[in-house]
Write a structure and sequence with these properties.
- The protein is built from one helix and four strands; from the N terminus they run E-E-E-E-H.
- The protein is α+β, with helices and mostly antiparallel strands.
- The relative contact order is 0.24.
Length: about 90
């Protein structure tokens, strides 16, 4: 699943990928989930501002659902744009 959003002159491309994490303890079963892959482009360009960034939940755990990963990635991308490029506007 991939979605694109326009935000403050940037295009935020959020894709969701399956992820299987191995538990901290060897006896713990693998936990399936999802990660958000975020790419940030300046509007009307095809070159990303950063290399793709991968996000999970707190502590590096994967998101439980695809929609949680999508919204988590979108929130992270907006925060990056706000913090790095829009500090003069707020």
């Amino acid at each position: 699943m991939t979605r694109s959003y326009d935000y403050e002159g940037f295009t935020l491309e959020i894709s969701v990928e399956s992820d299987i994490s191995i538990g901290l303890k060897k006896l713990e079963p693998a936990r399936a989930g999802y990660v958000a892959v975020v790419r940030i482009f300046q509007a009307a360009t095809t070159v990303a501002v950063f290399a793709p960034l991968r996000f999970g939940e707190v502590g590096g755990r994967p998101f439980t659902t695809e929609s949680d990963a999508l919204m988590g990635g979108y929130s992270a991308a907006r925060k990056i744009v706000d913090d790095l490029f829009c500090h003069d506007r707020h």
